[in-house]
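One such shown below:
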Amino acid sequence: MARKTSAKTKLVMPKVAKKRLTFAERSGQTSRAANTLAAAVNGRAEQHWTHETIRSALLRRQAIEIDELLEELPRPAISYAVTKGWLHRSQGEPWFRVTRLAASQLGLLCRHNGRKLVFVNAAKLPPSLTAFDEPKPQAKPQTPAEREAEIMTALREPRDVLAQARLYRDVMIETGWTSGGLARKLETEKTAINRRWGDVILHIDLLALEPEYQQAVAGGRLSLLQAYELYRVPSEVRPQMVEAFKTGLARLKVRRLFAAVAQRATFVQPTA
């Protein structure tokens, strides 16, 4: 005998409990501020961007806040747009305004929802403020070895005689090196050291002469060795020694001649 069934069958849908918010939603990790922060610090920094990316972020907008920009663009792209003159922010403004230059170069729409978009003419405004207040990188402190290498490179560079003399003097004052110590820093072989030592002495003694004699050496009218002979005698005798050099007498002959008259104020022109 067939089993009897109820004439009325009632279908009951299972009751679904209200879905609980996730931890990210409860803690605010999905909020706009959190998304902006994550985009600016973590995700957006390495994102590839192009002019089209910037165009999409500025499309249908005439002013935009930095938080909105960070949702769509990485920080380098925003700074680039400011540098290009596509975005402008004046002192006291919390937002950036899209410029006419951006509209022209990026092909931005001039109307949105029947309303005309007014782009700012940045050419009539002061330079825009930067997008971010980036701290300037501090120069790495120079080690003594690096400074010494820099000095050695500078000393070996070609320059005029007066500039070389001033450089020798400044280096000796800064480092405390003597003329011989400076020569040993620059050269390694004994002959080269002696030659450099003499060169340093000649240049330093040149700075002790009057300006007219320094300029004569710089102009090639006197040699460094002749200037050294001027340095060896009293200042009142130097004009007479210069006249002796002009006659064509050899430097050593002039030295012997003035060794006897260095204390006198007059100079007798030698006869040939």
